[in-house]
């Protein structure tokens, strides 16, 4: 297709919304319009992304960070993967090792024990390879150790919360770019005031647990960026509208009471068949968060292909389009400072276990395939960084 007719996805997203709105197109219809207007993924478009530099370098050229989650066992046992990780990523987020209890050799094997063995090994891997390190996650309703329920009660909960944060954040003080201090505190279906999730922490401490957590983290490491992290904020669905509103109100309330929250983490677990991607709603939400004086991190980006057709080229194209459409919108917001994928290679993704395909085919959700080759998704993320304005 001649270059002059090649409207990039970014330009189509920028002017298309107005055109779509004036034409009365729904977001879904606009999506198919967009696909029909913009050259389909082929070798020409893929080559537009200069493949000589890495995602880390492309992000850094625009003042952004690109990184990925990683697991101890994968990075320590698969040297080829570790090399790819260091080549492509500027940041490492331990996927399991800094949760209370995830994977083998958990951080909190018992009430009185902190086992930093695997966390320290990953911190050393990051330091040795000049990777930024971010911590995930200090307070969550999942991955709590088996001893938690019968040990922590309303009398000692505040001490367990603050001593966990003080000990873990203090242990890595000076090494951490940022911490997911509280993860997934909003769940409207729980029917709690403010849309708060009815977590063990809410039951034991009330809604002030969030403020307590951030204040404990700030006291333990004044230099770390402190992040509230959540999902379900990305699409135009009514449920995402409601959650965006609840998260914004939570952040406004925290800022009003002087809680040291510095950024919102938008997990960004996307779906190749989600359909209702509404760029306008996302833009407005990001602007509202930025207006609170907060930074934004895209913290767990991936695209599930669970319900996409079996054909690999089709799946890869749809997944790549989802990455590019999403990132072209979020990277237009200057407050966005980092894009972290939840995994780098299809060989190591939670989606294989948590959202497997019914046809039994391996999932193809991340920038690199299971042999660590770059896929259309890699080129899509690369193009989004190349087209992003400088931050
Ligand atoms: O394989 C080990 C097994 O050997 C061990 O005996 C057992 C003991 O708990 O753990 C097993 O590993 C589990 C792993 O899934 C494989 O099944 C981990 O415990 C378990 O934590 C892990 O699930 C993780 C999940 O969070 C819960 O921690 C996923 O890998 C991880 O991708 C997922 O990530 C979450 C983010 O933290 C928050 N946002 C949503 C995201 C996806 O759910």
Short descriptors:
16 helices; binds ligand G3I; single chain; 9 strands; alpha/beta; 391 residues
Explain how this protein is built.
This protein is an alpha/beta fold. It is 43% helix and 14% strand. Strands 1-2-3-4-5-6-8-9 form an 8-stranded parallel beta barrel, surrounded by 5 helices. Strand 5 (225-230), helix 12 (238-256) and strand 6 (263-266) form a beta-alpha-beta unit. Mean pLDDT is 91; it is low at 1-8, 13-27 and 33-47.
How far from one another are the termini? 32 Å
Structural class: alpha/beta
**From the alpha-carbon coordinates, what is the Rg to the nearest angstrom?**
21 Å
Mean pLDDT score: 91
Q: Give the assembly state of these chains.
A: single chain
Q: Which overall shape is indicated by the principal axes computed on the Cα atoms?
A: globular
The count of DSSP E runs of length 2 or more, i.e. the number of strands, is 9
Q: What small molecules are bound in this structure? A: ligand G3I
Please mark out the parts with pLDDT under 50 across 5 or more consecutive residues, or reply none.
Answer: 1-8, 13-27, 33-47
Helix content: 40-55%
Number of continuous helical runs: 16
Order of helices and strands: HHHHEHHEHEHHEHHEHEEHEHEHH
The largest sheet, given as strand count, sense and whether it forms a barrel, is: 8 strands, parallel, barrel
β-strand amount? 5-15%
Main-sheet strand order equals 1-2-3-4-5-6-8-9
